[in-house]
Amino acid sequence: MSDGKSLTQSDKPDTVETADMDWYVYLLRCSDNTLYTGITTDLVRRLRQHNGELAGGAKYTRAKRPVELVWSAHCASRSEASVREAWLKKLSRSQKLKLALASNRAAESGSTTLP
Prior knowledge:
Layout: E1 23-29, E2 35-40, H1 43-50, H2 59-62, E3 68-75, H3 78-90, H4 93-109
Antiparallel strand pairs: 1-2, 1-3
């Protein structure tokens, strides 16, 4: 900024996306037991949006609240997140649930390796 002030996180518009941001692909379980897949740079914010605590969130999840995060994976770029999202969407429901179950087991055992 020209006045010498630096931008804080709260000063930055929500729509700013840069190449060096961390991205995540995630899988939600909705209240009707359906699954929803998406990508984001901020998992906590996005989950709050899907649950109606903040403005935003997908139209699909608005009628299926509350939603629960059942799986996520870190990606180095938006491109990588989009590719992983497309891969995840091609999986069958049972494969997605196995992925979520494996992730939960890994988290409970202290392992950091996710599929």
